[in-house]
Amino acid sequence: MKKYYQETAKTVLERVNSRGTGLTGEEVEKSRERCGWNELVEGKKKRIPQIFLEQYKDFLVLILIASAIISGILGDAESAAVIIIVITINAILGTVQTVKAEQSLQSLKNLSGPEAKVLRDGAAIIIPARELVVGDVILLEAGDMVPADGRLIENASLKINESALTGESLAVEKSISAISEDVPLGDRTNMLFSGSFVTYGRGKAVVTDIGMETEVGRIAGLLKSTSEKQTPLQANLEDFGKKLSVLILVFCGILFAINVFRGENIGSAFMFAVALAVAAIPEALSSIVTIVLSFGTQKMAKEHAIIRKLQAVEGLGSVSVICSDKTGTLTQNKMTVEDYYVEGKRIPAAEIDVDDPAQRCLMDYSILCNDSTNENGVEIGDPTETALINLGSRYGIEAAAVRSDYPRTDELPFDSDRKMMSTLHSIDGENRMIVKGAVDRLLELSEHIQTTEGLREITDEDKRMIRQQNRVFSMEGLRVLAFTYRQVPEGHTMTPEDENHLVFLGLIAMMDPPREESKDAVAECIKAGIRPVMITGDHKITAAAIAKRIGILQDLSEACEGADIEDMSDEELRDFVTGISVYARVSPEHKIRIVRAWQERGMIVAMTGDGVNDAPALKQADIGVAMGVTGTEVAKDAAAMVLTDDNFATIVKAVANGRNLYKNIKNAIQFLLSGNFGAILAVLSASVTGLPVPFVPVHLLFINLLTDSLPAIALGVEPSDSEVMKDKPRAAKESILTGKFLSKIAVDGLVIGTMTMIAFLTGYHQNGTLLGSTYAFGTLCLARLFHGFNCKSDRPVIFTKRFFNNKWLLGAFLLGAALITAVLTVPGSEMVFKVEMLNPAQLGTVYLYAFSSLAIIQLIKWVRKE
Q1: How far apart are CA 830 and CA 205, in angstroms?
Q2: In sequence order, which residues have a C-beta less than 8 Å from that of residue 617 and are 6 or more positions away?
Q3: For strand 197-209 and strand 137-141, is the pairing parallel, antiparallel, or unpaired?
């Protein structure tokens, strides 16, 4: 069966059981029974309990739950309670953040559906678009949103903006003629598509598809078959949790073997090993990462971004390729005049002189031969026409005033056959017809040209120069209109035959220009080692021109069209993508394949866009970024992040924020693991040498609750470092636990563990096990608090301004130090915390040992950097 666009309007009406006067009420009900309502079916949303339970799927959290159960069985109710409390807080935080992000996104949506003007029982009525059925005849005019897919049956110079669906920024001129061959969506000029809007003219169409059967609906359906990707942080934390568990089990196994070898009861040795495993696992890690990411989302919200998926903040910081849509993302999605060509000279729009008679004449005529309006910021009309009147406003020449001075008395509307439009006005005592249209067509009809010396006959050389300038404009991706005029007799009624014997006035070139900040943003991406790639449904020349302006494209050989990759295998495309920076005239399927090809090369891919046609690729990408203002609801739902200012430069801020967040999270992990490793080393060394265990369970409980969490969170909000943008993106499969990272943890843990054991031995030899345990407990707590400053940077920070630049870390240190000092010196606490009260000299000794660990680690950093 032929497609609707391949059949005549009469045949399509018969096929959908309709007629030019519309359906009757009874026919509407029958059609609705067959096809349903005109709405997109949303996927089933997760309920809050389901979101809450999903927070427990993390591998490390499952290990912690198992540890809590074992602790309870072994009688260590305190540790079990701490673990359960911490992972529950983590789950609540994750749930709140997810629900909050969805609510923020919902506030961006326009909840009221559009209306439709439809013929029912032969009369025109306005109904909610949801109530449309297949066979309905809809009436459209400038400013209307197309409410469903349909076949055009009547056309009066109709132009439709389909950028949200196809990515093409220019309005499409519509026709009722059947198209015999198979053509892509953007070239189906006799069809109307849901979600597009009318910019010019009027028309009548019969609805052929509604709801999920529309082109928009098909793309929404395509989203269901596209799997979401784990962010780099999600993958890293999952891998990290597994490796960490193995490492801790190895340590506990060694300790178990040592105790058994020394003759201890196997059951007691096993219980001690399990207890140490529970103490060694940084149960605060998951909640700390969640809290840090939550802080990141709050910061991003202030910088015009709503994070729908918590890990997307960090994920953006690790992308190595950004595949960006052009229209509305890199460009303003608003046609703007770029150049005039008058009297043989090219004049940039910013240099137009309205006092020059020829330039002022061109401006006035472009406003007069024009059907668009812009009142109180509301633009109605074709984007190319609104660009012309907006240029006049820029120079203080308002369309209403010009049209009042020279009122229109007659017109010949634009149509695609003539490729021109004419209007008649009384100007300077003459009855003057202004004609605008395609350059080549108007040059054929021009007999004279206006110059500084006045009118003269147009020569072949004049036409050659005009055509050459038109080619230059076209190669720069500009759309060009020619303007001409002629005098007609008074009282004459215009006909197409009057569009002859014209006087050539000039050319106006326009385009959808790049956003002002796009060029700097692209340069920043390249500096950061990120490959920017443009993927658009627009024409190759237009896309290449924009890409060259903003620095994405260096040579035209780096641009291709969707047809070039249509028949490529996935393997061929994987090799092909490295040499291409611009893809034009692509379909949604092409976008997904391009994103996948980069992913198969091991790249972390971000995809930005605003149109329905971008949504499947947004979901396929590692990080999908949708535009909040111009973006469609389908695009926003598919994305991990929504930009509320539609600003590509905001993505660069997100990259910097993401890189800093990842760095801060690694610093927090280093802080937690090196402190825990120091405690494990102290216990191991005591076991190996036959000394009493330096700690009791309540000591580990205090450390986990108070001296671990606050400094780790504070490290997570360490002030941003601009130097991160000079680094290349990390590899997609790079683990958190790299050899270099583990070596830093080992060295830091060794220093902390050594100072803790020195403190234990000092107290043990002074007054036995209790004082030794108190010294070890106090030193370990304080050393970990001091260690927060070590984890700020790989470089030494002591005696530098950076030591004091994080007020949260300073606050965490002071609070932690005050609490441990109170535990060691305030009477009554010795019974609760199993310590011996210290005098000032003993307390000073503990502080000295703890500070020594800071000094030693800072010295090691200094030596390493030398």
Answers
A1: 86
A2: 323, 535, 588, 591, 592, 594, 595, 607, 609, 624
A3: antiparallel
Answer whether 341's CB lies under 8 Å from 506's CB. yes
Helix, strand, coil % over all residues of the chain, rounded to 5: 55, 20, 30
Distance of CA 729 to the CA centre of its chain: 17
Q: Which residues contact 525 (CB under 8 A, 6 or more apart)?
A: 322, 531, 532, 652, 655
- DSSP states of 538-593: S-HHHHHHHHHHHTS-SSGGGEEEHHHHTT--HHHHHHHGGG-SEEES--HHHHHH
The neighbour count for residue 631, using CB atoms within 10 Å, is: 29
Residues of 420-455 as b/e, b for ≥16 C-beta within 10 angstroms? bbbbbbebeeebbbbbbbebeebbebbebbbeeeee
Contact 217, 211 (CB under 8 A): yes
Residues 391 and 848: their CA atoms lie apart, in Å, by 73
Neighbours of 374 (CB within 10 A): 18
**Nearest Cα residue to 310 out of 104, 109, 101:** 101
**Cβ(292)–Cβ(599) under 8 Å?**
no
Give me the DSSP letters along 31-58.
Answer: HHHHH--SSPPPPPPPPHHHHHHHGGGS
Provide the 10 A C-beta neighbour count for residue 858: 19
**325 is a catalytic site residue:** yes
How many Å apart are CA 441 and CA 460, to the nearest integer? Answer: 15
The pLDDT value given to residue 111: 31
Would you say residue 865 has pLDDT above 90? no
DSSP string of 439-477? HHHHHHHEEEEEETTEEEEPPHHHHHHHHHHHHHHHHTT
Q: How confident is the model at residue 139 (pLDDT cuts 50, 70, 90)?
A: very high
Catalytic residue, chosen from 76, 136, 209, 325, is 325
CA angle 704, 707, 709 (to 5 degrees): 65
Tokens encoding 597: 């090809």
Q: 722 is written with which tokens?
A: 């601009």
Give the DSSP per-residue string, 839-851.
Answer: -HHHHHHHHHHHH
Round to whole Å and give the CA distance between 120 and 27.
10
Residue 475: both structure tokens together: 């190669």
595-646 pLDDT, tens per residue? 999 999 989 899 987 777 777 888 889 889 988 877 776 677 778 888 888 7
Centre a 10 Å sphere on the Cβ of residue 221 and count the other Cβ atoms it contains.
Answer: 14
| Residue 29 in tokens | 């009900």
Quick check: 482 and 438 in contact, CB under 8 A? yes
- In this structure, the number of other CB atoms found within 10 A of the CB of residue 515 comes to 19
Q: How many CB atoms lie within 10 A of CB 20?
A: 14
The answer to whether 779 and 764 are in contact (CB under 8 A) is no
The closest of 149, 147, 125, 153 to 19, measured between CA atoms, is: 153
What is the rounded CA–CA span in Å between residue 655 and residue 725?
Answer: 8
Rounded CA-CA distance 799/739 in Å is 29
pLDDT of the residue at 802: 85
Provide CB contacts within 8 A for 491, sequence distance 6+.
none
Give the C-alpha distances (Å, rounded to integers) separating 520 from 514, 536, 549, 626, 782. 11, 20, 11, 20, 46
Mean pLDDT for the chain overall: 85
Q: What is the CA radius of gyration of the chain?
A: 35
Residue partners of 110: CB distance under 8 A and separation at least 6: none
Say which residue the tokens 């947004």 belong to: 618
Q: What is the pLDDT of residue 71?
A: 65
The CA-based dihedral angle spanning residues 762, 764, 769, 771, taken in that order and rounded to the nearest 10 degrees: -50
